[in-house]
Structure to design on (204 residues):
């Protein structure tokens, strides 16, 4: 499965080569591959490459959201060209109940482009993923750019509206069975079986 993030969050074409997100499925999980322009803006987070970094959404990132639209349980994955990552499990819009999960994530970076590969174990996915969206963020202050695979339709925009990647109603249908066949069943996750009630709000 291959996706190109060709629009800003509010539906305008991006002015650079679109970010490419590719999902390859295996027995143990999903390999998420990113190929993207490297803006190096903002500068790298202070966290160690290869480790989780809280509030990574304030930096240059590519994000993927895997949603069960009935339960509103979803997995959010954020990948940074400098090697940091952030994995969030949410139950209900913005309600994080688990974060900073470990991730196998490798980055190769040139002057103007970067590529990353992250292995997402099935354990991280909520039961019965039905919808998907992907996003990219770069730039600082008034040059901050928010991009979306499935943007907010321009007819739905309100005056003064700000980008919000947790508008789950704009996610589009997505099923792993499209690649693995109708007989395939998503492996159960023991992490989601012990979902906690201590939720907090996510802004990324």
């Amino acid at each position: 499965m291959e996706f190109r993030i060709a629009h800003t969050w509010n539906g305008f074409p991006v002015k650079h080569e679109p970010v490419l997100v590719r999902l390859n499925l295996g027995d143990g999980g999903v390999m998420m591959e990113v190929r993207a322009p490297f803006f190096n803006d903002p500068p790298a987070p202070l966290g160690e490459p290869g480790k989780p970094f809280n509030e990574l959404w304030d930096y240059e990132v590519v994000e993927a959201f895997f949603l069960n639209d009935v339960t509103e349980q979803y997995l959010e994955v954020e990948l940074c060209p400098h090697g940091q990552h952030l994995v969030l499990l949410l139950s209900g819009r913005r309600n994080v109940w688990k974060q900073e999960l470990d991730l196998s994530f490798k980055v190769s970076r040139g002057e103007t482009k970067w590529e990353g590969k992250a292995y997402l174990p099935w354990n991280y996915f909520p039961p019965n993923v039905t919808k998907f969206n992907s996003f990219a963020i770069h730039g600082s202050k008034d040059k901050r750019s928010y991009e979306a695979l499935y943007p907010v339709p321009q007819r739905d925009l309100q005056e003064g509206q700000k980008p919000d990647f947790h508008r789950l109603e704009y996610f589009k249908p997505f099923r792993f069975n499209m690649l693995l066949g109708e007989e395939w069943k998503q492996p159960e996750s023991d992490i989601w079986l012990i979902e906690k009630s201590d939720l907090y709000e996510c802004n990324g």
User: Anything to note?
Assistant: The first helix runs from residue 177 to 180. The chain has two helices and 14 strands. The longest strand covers residues 29-37. The CA atoms of residues 67 and 102 lie 20 Å apart.
